[in-house]
Structures are given as structure tokens and as C-alpha cells.
Amino acid sequence: xxxxxxxxxxxxxxxxxxxxxxxxxxxxxxxxxxxxxxxxxxxxxxxxxxxxxxxxxxxxxxxxxxxxxxxxxxxxxxxxxxxxxxxxxxxxxxxxxxxxxxxxxxxxxxxxxxxxxxxxxxxxxxxxxxxxxxxxxxxxxxxxxxxxxxxxxxxxxxxxxxxxxxxxxxxxxxxxxxxxxxxxxxxxxxxxxxxxxxxxxxxxxxxxxxxxxxxxxxxxxxxxxxxxxxxxxxxxxxxxxxxxxxxxxxxxxxxxxxxxxxxxxxxxxxxxxxxxxxxxxxxxxxxxxxxxxxxxxxxxxxxxxxxxxxxxxxxxxxxxxxxxxxxxxxxxxxxxxxxxxxxxxxxxxxxxxxxxxxxxxxxxxxxxxxxxxxxxxxxxxxxxxxxxxxxxxxxxxxxxxxxxxxxxxxxxxxxxxxxxxxxxxxxxxxxxxxxxxxxxxxxxxxxxxxxxxxxxxxxxxxxxxxxxxxxxxxxxxxxxxxxxxxxxxxxxxxxxxxxxxxxxxxxxxxxxxxxxxxxxxxxxxxxxxxxxxxxxxxxxxxxxxxxxxxxxxxxxxxxxxxxxxxxxxxxxxxxxxxxxxxxxxxxxxxxxxxxxxxxxxxxxxxxxxxxxxxxxxxxxxxxxxxxxxxxxxxxxxxxxxxxxxxxxxxxxxxxxxxxxxxxxxxxxxxxxxxxxxxxxxxxxxxxxxxxxxxxxxxxxxxxxxxxxxxxxxxxxxxxxx
Length: 721
Description:
This protein has helices at 8-23, 30-45, 52-63, 69-77, 100-128, 135-146, 158-167, 172-192, 211-218, 223-239, 253-270, 281-287, 293-311, 343-359, 380-397, 409-419, 433-443, 445-463, 469-480, 494-498, 502-613, 617-645, 654-666, 670-682, 688-705; strands spanning 49-50, 82-85, 88-91, 205-209, 247-251, 313-315, 373-376, 406-407.
């Protein structure tokens, strides 16, 4: 992958950091920088006695660094005032001192981080209404925002961060804190950037792994050595991440025979033919859980399968190292068989070293990484003989320097880490700004300010198109690579690397147990919170169920009340119906009464006119009008008034009445409609009330003008009427 495809900000931050350190001659190697951070931990935590794994964990907790233990040990080895005894490093307090400025800077960094993140979090919460803002996300976004890097990172809160900074533009303390975070961010990102495949491994390298290293890959030697193997393999993976595979992992046929013999011994132990080898952790790991020799064979098959398919480790394809072409490069003529009991081990060691020399065609190499072929082992005999053979060759050929034929797992891990230009962490940015501010303290404020200026300068050149990311990366490689390796990597300190005493192993196991305990405590806390949450949810469910029962009881009570209310309404309606019925009867009687009264009045009037004018005509008219009026009144009473006043009050609801009315309309009888039409035709379509009112209004006038007026003209069937 081209550097152009990687994050340009990280590349420029790395260059700015290394350039600033180189300018003040504070950069010699990454190990030297790592020592500065180790010193910080020793001072801040008063950690004057520790193991390598303890310091590795402290580097992770303080700064978020994920560094192989082998690299940590290499860095500690070069520290003044530090001694190693039984795998435990002891620091002379006089060699590391804490001044007031250090303590003040540390306190200040803690305050800035807490204060600014708190204010920023509160501001975003007020703007968004979100009270569960991730501190890790917020810290990363703030750092990226200050570096103007939003190309490959989350920008969830970017707009709000910009608003917060503008709002506090006149706040000196906040601006001061933001500047320090920016400076620290450049340093932190710069330290963590990895060159990767663009580093210094330019030639293919084949590494032949010893038996104990292969067992470590499988976990047979315990967690300590398995972690060492994993750290080593991580570096190999980085080296092979490019287009071309740089490193191959193999084992010699002699090594395979040694492993097969080991599994054969395990089979005999399982079958009871031999006593268990209590001093061999690998033997215990293999025989545990095995009941028969077949079980051991299954484990052996799984072991080789895992080596090949999980780690890409295969057997050496070359099966003959004793041809004529190898005669001059054969080293087995050296006599190392001084002790009979160690003769076999030394014989195998010399044979494997001789194989390496033959694969190198007898050529001399001065760099382990460029030696083309190399044994990686934790076997003391092989490492010692390798060193002795190399020293003899140097002496006999008058060479100043010569790489060994075999190296320890620690050394090759550190070498690869150094050559690959690996950063201190796999993450560009930490989960907390505190690590950024502490990095600024470790490397000093002056370097931080210089790094910021250098960063701004190179970023402007990059934006203006004067340089590209590949060019900046090339500058980084130049600054990192030295003509000579750091002295810490020049040779293997076999006693230091390989002598894992019971005290050291015990302390290592204690650290592992401590980590496991902490994990268990965290797990217990999580489980406790989970149980508490479940309890609260259960209580909530019970509350909801109780409320549901209350609601149910209330519903039943309401239903009962509604039933009682309906009865009351029915009774009230019935009383109203009866009252209305009585009222309608009275209205009906009044309607009939006044009509009869009118007829009586007409009759009286006719008698009066008869007596006054001595004429029978008014009497006839009166009789005729009375007759018609009586007929119409009776018809009106029976038909209209009865319908109007005496209709029954139904006990049905209004909705039922409407339905009934709609049904009535829907089922209207045509015969009734025809009868009504015939009646209207017979009555000339007159309204009885209107007709009688009209008749009474004109009657007096008609007889006043002419007593002989035709009565037929006043009848209802008259067309004029």
C-alpha cells in the first residue's frame, strides 16, 4: 500500500516529532525515547522494583502503548542505575529524581484534561440533549480537530467542538489548555506512527525456529512464552504485509525429529512405560487429558497442523546438507564434545549452526536482519555455540564484526520492531487526553512547541503541493535509520534474556494472576450491574403488573358504575317519556279544543247574523263550514295531531332511533305514498289550519258585501281556493 493512501496527518506528525527531537539531539533510537516514558512511570508511580511485564502493562495503562515485552526489556537494559536480579529490575532512587517542575507539570496536565473535557462534554450535552457522550470519542475528535484532520476519523462532534472553541476564544486558560493538547497530540501521533513495509527490511530472510520456540507457539511452555511467540509473530506479519513476503518461518528436519521423539516419550508416559518428566512444562501440556498413545498422536497431528495453517511455519524442504558443494562451509568439524552428558545436545546444536552456514554459502554477514538465514531459539547451548563459532571466525579471519548464526526470540523480536519502524501503539490516538498531555511532559514543553511549528511548516508544504506523503515518509526513514544499530541490539545478553529463575516466573505469574483478578473484578462489577439492572427491570415489571391489576379492577368498577348509570339514565328517560307523554296529550286536547271552539264561534256568529238580518243563509253557511271544519278537524286530530303529540317514546337509544328511521325510509311502502297523494288531491292539497284561518278572515267581508254569495266558492275543493 502506498504511503499516499495512509493518513497524511500521522506521517507529518511523525516527521515533526523526530525532526524536533533530532534538532536538540535527543533522538538516538526509539529505545532511548521509550526510556523517557519508563522513567516517567518510575517517578509518578514510585515503581523502583518491577518485572518487564509489569512495566509493559504500566506503559499501556499510562499511555496506551502496546509494545512487545522484548522491546521493553531492551529499553530497560540501557537505563542507568538499573540492575537485574532473578528477572526483577531494581532502580537506584538517586539515579532518577523528581523535581518540583515535574510534579507541577503532571498535576497541571491532569487538571487541563479533566477541566476541558468536562466543559466540552457539558457544552455538547446542552446543544444536543445527549447526556451519554463517549469520553474516548470526544478526546479523539478534539485531538483530530485541533490538528485539522477530519479525513479518516469520526466527525460526530466536530461542529460543536468548533463552536466551543470560538465561544471560549477569549478564555486564556481554555486556549492555553487547547494549545497543550494540540502540541501533545502531534508528539503522541508522531510516536505511534509505523513505517511498516516501507522500513528497512529489504532482503528476504528465512528464520529456522527451535523446538522450544515451536512449543511456545502452541502454548506448551505456558502463557509467558506463548506471549513472547505472539509478539514475535506480530512483527513477522507486519514485515509480510506488503506485496512481497519478506520473512519465511521454517524448522529443520533435525528439529522435527526432536519433536517426534518428545511426543514418543509422551506416549510412553501415558502408557505407563516411563515416569512423568516433572521439569518439562511442554510434556505436562501434551500428556494432560491423554488416556492412550493414540490421544498423544492426535495432539501431535494438531500441533503440526497449527504450525502450518495458523502461523505458516513449515519444515525445511532441503533434505541433504552433506553434498560436495557444502564441504567448505561445513562447521561440524569443530570439537565441542568436552562433556559426555552434553555431547548429544551440542552435536545437534553444531549441526544446525552448520546448516545455517551452508545455506549462507559460507558468506559473512554483519547484520542479523540481512543474514538471509538465521536460527531463532531459546536453547542456551545453541546460542552459546553460535556466539563461540562466530567469535572464532572473527578471530581467525581478522574481522571486526560478524553476526551470529542464532539469536534469541527476544532479540529477533526487538530487531524486527526496530527495523520495521514500529510505533509505540497500534492506535493513532489514545482513549484519553491525559496520555497526550503526559507525552508532552515526557518529551518537554520546548520540544512540543518545536514539533508544532515543524508540523505546521510541513503541512503547509503538503497542502501547497511542494511535497507528498511518500516524500515525508522517506524523511522519517532517514531520521530513524542509523548506520549502526543501537548498542542495546548489538548482541545477545544470554544470561539476561534466557535465565528465567523461579522468582521471575513466580512474579510473572503473580502479574498474570493480578491481571486476571482485575478482569474478574471488572467482570463481577459488570455482572453486579447486570443483576441490578435485571432486578430493577423485574421490579418495574411487577409494578407494571400491579398497575395493570389496578387498572383492571378500575375497569370492572367503571363497568359496574356504567351499568348503574345506564339504569339511572333509563329510569330518567322513562320518567321524561311519561312526562312528555302527558304534555303531548294536553297539547293534543288543546289542539282539538281550539278548533272546536272556532266551529262553535262560527255557529254563534251565524245565529247572530240570522237574527240580525233575518236570513237563513248564514245558518246554511255556518252548517256547511261547521261540517267541513269538523271533518277537517277530526282528520287533522287523527292524522297529524295524533302523529305530532301522541307518538310513543321509544326506549331505544338515539342511534337506534336513527337506524330505525333510516330503515323506515329505506322500507317506505309505495301504497302509503299513493294513499297520501290521493288525499292531497281530494283536499286540493290544502293545509287545514291555513284553510280555516283564511276562511275566518274573509267570511265576514263576504257576507257584509253580499249575503247571497255562493257558498260553493268557499269550499275546499274549489279550484280558486
